[in-house]
Amino acid sequence: MTEKRMSRWYFGGIASCGAACCTHPLDLVKVHLQTQQEVKMRMVGMAMHVVKNDGVLALYNGLSASLCRQMSYSLTRFAIYETVRDMMGSGGQGPMPFYQKVLLGAFGGFTGGFIGTPADMVNVRMQNDMKLPADQRRNYKHALDGLFRVWREEGTRKLFSGATMASSRGALVTVGQLACYDQAKQLVLGTGLMGDNILTHFLSSFIAGGCATFLCQPLDVIKTRLMNSKGEYRGVIHCLTETARLGPLAFYKGLVPAGIRLIPHTILTFVFLEQLKKYFGIRVVS
User: Fold this and answer.
1) Side-chain half-sphere CA neighbours of 158 within 13 A
2) How many CA atoms lie within 13 A of 75 on its CB side?
3) How far apart are the two ends of the chain, measured CA to CA in Å?
4) Cα–Cα nearest to 221, from 193, 191, 242
C-alpha cells in the first residue's frame, strides 16, 4: 500500500497569500510601469523612485488588497482546478490529458478572475495612489475600506470594472500556472531522474511561471489601464486601440518585471502548496 496526500480546497489560497507577501513590491513596481503613459523609467529606477519619495514601506502599499485578491481569485481557481482534477484522477485512470488540464484551468481561472475583480481593482488603485498628486489620491485605509468606498461612491458596476479582462487574464494565467505546472511535473517525474521533491517542484513551477507570464502580459496591461482609469476609456476595445497606437511593444510593457514578479510568485506558491499538501493534506491510501 502506498500513501499519498491530496490538497485541501483552500490550500491554494493560503499558498498564494504566502507568495504574495514575498513578491508584493515587485507587483507594485510592475503596476507603476504599466500605468506610465510614456516609458520614462525602468524597473530599478521606478523602485528607487518609490522608495526615495515615499519610503521603503511604500513598496507594500496595497498589501491588504493583494491578500484579499488572493483569497478570492486564487482560492477559487485552485479550488475548482484541484477538486475536479483529483475527482477525475481518483477513478484510477491515471493523469488527465493535457488538453483537459488546459480546459479545466481556463474555466477555473475565468471564474476566479471574475470573483477576484473587485479586490484586484482596489489593489491596483492602492498601489498606484502614491503617483497621483495629493489632492487626487483616493487614500483607501485598507482593502475593505476601498471596496466599500468604491461601492458607495461609484456603484456596484464600478467594482467589476475590467471584469472581462480580469477573467480572461485569470483563464490564461491559470492555464500557464496550474495546467503547465501539472504537465511539467508529470514530465519531470516521468524521466525517472528526479523524485517528487522540492527540486522537482521548483523546476516545474519555474517553467509554469514563464508560460503564464508570456500568455497573460498583453491582457494584464489592458486590465491595469482599465482599472486605473478615471473615465478616459469608453471600454475594452477603446483601451485596446489606444494602447495599440503606442506600438505592439506597448502590450508587453513591464514584461521583465512581470516575469520577475510572476515567476517567483509561481515558484513560491507551488513550493508552499506542496509543503501544505505534504504535512496537512488529506491522506489517501492506495
Assistant:
1) 16
2) 15
3) 6
4) 242
pLDDT tens across 226-242, in order? 777 777 787 788 888 88
Rounded Cα–Cα distance for residues 10 and 252 (Å)? 32
Positive or negative: CA dihedral 66, 72, 73, 77: positive
Who's near 150: CB < 8 A, 6+ residues apart? Answer: 118, 121, 122, 158, 159
Which residues in the chain land under pLDDT 50? none
Q: pTM of the entire structure?
A: 0.81
Q: Do residues 78 and 109 lie in contact, with contact meaning Cβ atoms separated by under 8 Å?
A: no
Question: Using an 8 Å Cβ cutoff, are 261 and 47 in contact?
Answer: no
* Model pLDDT, residue 273: 96
How far is C-alpha 158 from the geometric centre of its chain's CA atoms? 21
Q: What are the grid coordinates assigned to 191, written together?
A: 524521466
Burial class of 208 by CB neighbour count within 10 A (0 to 12, 13 to 18, 19+) = buried
Three-class secondary structure of residue 283 per DSSP: strand
Compute the distance between CA of residue 96 and CA of residue 240 in angstroms, rounded to an integer: 36
